[in-house]
Structure formats: structure tokens, C-alpha cells
Amino acid sequence: MHRRPPRTRLFAAALAATLAVVAAATTTAGYAAAAGCRVAYTIGSQWSGGFTANVNVTNIGDPVSGWTLRWSFTAGQSVSQAWNATVTQSGSTVTAVNAGWNGSLPTNGSAGFGFNGGWNNSANPVPTSFTLNGVTCTGSVGPTTSPTVAPTTAAPTTPPPGGVPPQRTVRVYWLKPTDVAYDQRYPDGIANVMREAQRYYRQELGRTFTLNNPVVEVVNGDHPRAWYENTPNGNECYWWVVFNMQQELMRKLSLRAPDTRWINVGEISAEASCSGGGGGGGWVILSGHDADGAAGIGGTMNRWYGGMVHELGHAFGLPDSTSTDGTPMSASFYNYPNTHFSQAQKDRILSGPYGSFLS
Per the record, a Pfam family (predicted)? Predict the structure, then answer.
């Protein structure tokens, strides 16, 4: 669950609605009306095999109450120790999540952190691209627009082991690329996030959705991680990973977009520095940082719980809030569980196309 960062993206109902981002991711989750950022990355000192770097990120868009900064190393560098942020690395992609005391970034607010790293004694270039909560840092503020999504079709395939789950339920998938090792933390962690979201919806609406058993269907991907990250799909690289995942899930499992039989939640262990995710039209599609977060890697669990509640809200038909209003459809999802649906949002979920899925 991006998370999920400050920009609104919704995916289509009847393949004409739009996919909405987080965190999560999830960040990437709830986004502000405009987003922008700039990053200063400096190498403080360097020695044989090691270096120290300092990173300062400035939010020049609408205020955020939690941040995730991502970039990719291009020369095999690695992070070994960090301070003032939780920093993790998957392949070349580095994810930095705010510490407990520096998560709030008002407009023009900044936060800094540092880390020790390793390099190959040949080249240690400064990263050229960063994303803050899924938004590429260009040094300017841009409106949050929604992409146009081309219709996709799904070819029939063999039902999953144990048969096809009952309709009018929430199906959840972890797509594992061919070069990613199986790790039980991922299906277990994603299942726990879904159970918490299930509990929250019952608390807020008096009814909730049904999960299947097992909660998470593990799907072995057809490609290595880099293929999902680098194969263009959609009008910007933000969507490549999750659209590639979604279309493979549709092909393998005979799914549709939108799908009147199930609400579908897909997470994949792949992510480029520009990757994000979102929800809408009965789907939630999330990239690597949400899968990592659910598995307990990268940030507090409240952020991933709140991000999933947010993205499921989009899947049920809710738009982003226009301000940080205390509801999980705004940046208030970062304060989970101290956030609540408004009565208008509850009514819209229950009267929407998937309201009958709740019991």
C-alpha cells in the first residue's frame, strides 16, 4: 500500500476509471492536491570501500505527515548504517522512511538524514533521480493528474490450487519475480495487513469484506524483477511495475479490470526508483515498498495499515479528500488508527458498486 504519497491517481471502472496512488505506500495512499520536492545528496567523506552521505529533502508541495524517499544507485553502492531515518535497500533501490520525530513536512519544510555506505573504489556517482512519497522530485510543484489507462484483456488460465475462491470476496496476491527468493514473511505480512483492514472496515461501517483461505495467493511471476521495473506500461514509469503485475495476474488468473466477481489486491516484490501504486475500480495494485512494509521491512506498521485502508477505499469507489481532513482518504491515513471515514464516505462505499460485498 503505496502508500503513499501526495498525488491522486484513480484507475478505471469499466476500464475508464483511474488508479489512485500511496505507500505505503505505499507510498506509494492519501495524496495532497499538489506535490513537489527537491533533494540535496552530498558525499561527506569517502575512503577505500566506504563513504558517508548526507541527504536533505525539502517538501515544496502540500504538507505531508509522513515521508518515504527513494532512489537507485547506479554503480553498485550499498547502505550499511543510517541515522535520522530507517533506510533499507533492495537490489539497487534504496528506501528511506522518516524517523518518529521528523515525519511531518509542511510546505517548504525539510528533513535530513545520513548513512554510511560501501562502494567499488571505482565510481560513486550521486543519484540523479529521487521520489518523495512516489512523486519524482523535480524542484517544482505539479498538479496531481490521473493517467489514461488503455483497456486490457485477460486470457483464460488454469484455476489456482484449491479451486477459484468464492465470488464477492477480496482476493489478494503476492507476485514473486523469478529472481526473488521465496520469503514467508511476505504472504504472512500481507495477510496481517488485510486482516487489520478488514477489522477497521467493520469498526467504521458495521460490516466488512470477506477474505479467503489462504488470504494471500502466491503467484510465481514469469519474469525477473528488472523486467517488471523496466518494461514500459502506461504513460509514465510510475505505473510500469504495477501495470505489468496487474496484466500478468489478469492473464494467469482470468481476472478483469474492473472485476465484478472479486475485489483484487496485488502486491509485487519489484520496484524502480520511480515506481508507485494505487487503487480504483475494484483493484489495489502496489509495488515493492508496500510488500516490504507489510513484511516488516521499512517503517512502522501503522503506515502500511493506513495505506491499505486508503487504497481499499479507492477500490470501493472513494476519491481522495481535497484536504487533510481526518479521514483515511487524506494524508490523515498516516495517523492510523486515529482516522475515521466521514458519514458521506461511508454512504458512498455502501451504495457503490462493491457495497454489496460487505456483510
Answer: CBM_2
Residue type, 129: S
Quick check: is 87 in a domain? Answer: yes
Which single residue is written with the C-alpha cell 506535490? 35
- Chain centroid to Cα 208, Å, comes to 22
Beta bridge partners of 87: 96
> What's the whole-model pTM score?
0.61
Residues 45 and 20 in one domain: no
Q: Does residue 262 form part of some domain?
A: yes
CB–CB of 305/195 below 8 Å?
no
Of 143, 158, 186, the domain-final residue: 143
Report the domain count for the chain. 2
Tell me, yes or no, whether 4 lies in a domain: no
Can you say how many angstroms the Cα of residue 26 is from the centroid of all Cα atoms in its chain? Answer: 3
The pLDDT tens digits for 179-237 are 999 999 999 999 999 999 999 999 999 999 999 999 999 999 999 999 999 999 877 88
Q: How far apart are CA 58 and CA 152, in angstroms?
A: 38
| Residues of the domain holding 67 | 34-143
The CA-based dihedral angle spanning residues 348, 354, 355, 357, taken in that order and rounded to the nearest 10 degrees: -160
Residue after which a domain boundary falls, among 87, 119, 143? 143
Q: How confident is the model at residue 24 (pLDDT cuts 50, 70, 90)?
A: very low
Note whether residue 6 is domain-resident: no
Residue 75 near residue 119, CB atoms below 8 Å: yes
Residues 339 and 262 in one domain: yes
| Cell numbers standing for residue 77 | 553502492
The 10 Å Cβ neighbour count of residue 236 is: 11
C-alpha cell of 321?
479528500
Cell numbers 505505499 correspond to 26
DSSP 8-state assignment for residue 165? P
